[in-house]
Design goal:
This protein has a domain at 29-69. Helix content is 49%, strand content 0%. It has helices at 29-37, 41-54, 58-69.
């Protein structure tokens, strides 16, 4: 069975939020959120896609704000 946790073996979730530009696709926001909560980045990315479709695009503004403000 696959492990949905962060790929860091045995590492605890991060204590502070940071963008993860190494594993990130655009700005590293979803990968940073995944690191913070200790979950797989794919789940966060899927959540953002669903939220964007349901929220009529407002999560895109939130994503951009996080990407520009964080780090």
């Amino acid at each position: 069975m696959s492990d949905l946790r962060h790929s860091d073996p045995g590492g605890p979730p991060s204590k502070s939020f940071r963008l993860d530009r190494e594993r990130g696709k655009l700005m590293g926001v979803c990968a940073g959120i995944a690191n913070y909560f200790g979950i797989d980045a794919t789940l966060v990315r899927a959540g953002f896609v669903i939220a964007t479709l349901v929220g009529f695009g407002s999560p895109l503004l939130i994503y951009l704000a996080i990407g520009l403000i964080a780090d």
